[in-house]
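Q: Please design a sequence for this.
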């Protein structure tokens, strides 16, 4: 082949190069991550905070919002086909689930969400599928594994720290000290990060099946994992609401998607 011919033809590019030029990361297959739906009681509708989906897609996943269903066959079908499950933030959790009477200061509950997410979590656990719990999702994982919650932080755990910050939610409002030797600390390679905080409840007793990975300065558990599972992590803050370029949040979503096969 002459030099002229070689120059006149565009060089054949490897698929990786083409993907990189299109702004796609080369991250293997796109695992399907199901996100449990949120409830808008005023409208009687299910909805979603788009940032959960954006961050999952940005980390290489194919995110899908799950239907609110009470059908066992639908929940099982989803658990079979999903590569991972994200339990998002939202309503307070029914204290029935950890054997306490409802306090007046407990916030609005969603027994439908509690029920669906409990089923999906159990099915994911049976199948060894990765689960990431965010805020309420983390609290629910703790409760489903035998832990308990503060039903109302301001009255049950008075603190100098603001756990229910004002907007903008992309601005961190308190620190989180990472526990040495935990997978979160290994992932982030640091001993402390700054996190946002938008929660009314928090872990009171951590499940014996979970291990804390991070603490707020006032002692609340900010992250935990389940050592006996392939990947069950929970965080109390909202990484999806942090800026898209926030390195710890990106690393967290990427680690979850990787655990799901991405
Ligand atoms: Mn907090």
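A: Design:
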């Amino acid at each position: 082949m002459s030099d002229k011919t070689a120059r006149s033809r565009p060089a054949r590019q490897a698929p990786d190069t083409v993907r990189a030029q299109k702004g796609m990361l080369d991250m293997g297959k796109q695992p399907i991550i199901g996100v449990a739906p949120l409830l808008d009681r005023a409208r009687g509708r299910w909805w979603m905070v788009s940032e959960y989906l954006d961050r999952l897609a940005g980390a290489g996943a194919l995110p899908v919002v799950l239907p609110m269903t009470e059908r066992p066959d639908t929940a099982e079908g989803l658990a079979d086909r999903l590569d991972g499950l994200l339990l998002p933030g939202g309503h307070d959790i029914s204290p029935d689930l950890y054997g306490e009477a409802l306090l007046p200061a407990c916030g609005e509950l969603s027994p439908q969400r509690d029920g669906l997410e409990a089923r999906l979590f159990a099915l994911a656990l049976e199948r060894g599928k990765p689960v990431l719990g965010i805020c309420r999702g983390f609290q629910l994982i703790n409760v489903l594994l035998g832990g308990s919650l503060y039903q109302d932080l301001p009255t049950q755990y008075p603190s100098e720290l603001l756990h229910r910050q004002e907007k903008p939610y992309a601005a961190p409002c308190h620190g989180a000290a990472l526990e040495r030797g935990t997978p979160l600390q290994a992932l982030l390679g640091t001993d402390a990060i700054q996190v946002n905080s938008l929660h009314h409840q928090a872990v009171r007793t951590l499940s014996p099946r979970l291990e804390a990975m991070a603490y707020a300065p006032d002692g609340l558990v900010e992250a935990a994992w389940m050592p006996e599972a392939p990947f069950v992590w929970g965080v109390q803050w909202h990484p999806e609401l942090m800026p898209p370029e926030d390195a710890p949040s990106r690393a967290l979503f990427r680690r979850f998607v990787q655990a799901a096969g991405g």
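Q: Thanks. Anything notable?
A: The longest helix spans residues 111-127. Residues 84 and 129 are 6 Å apart (CA to CA).
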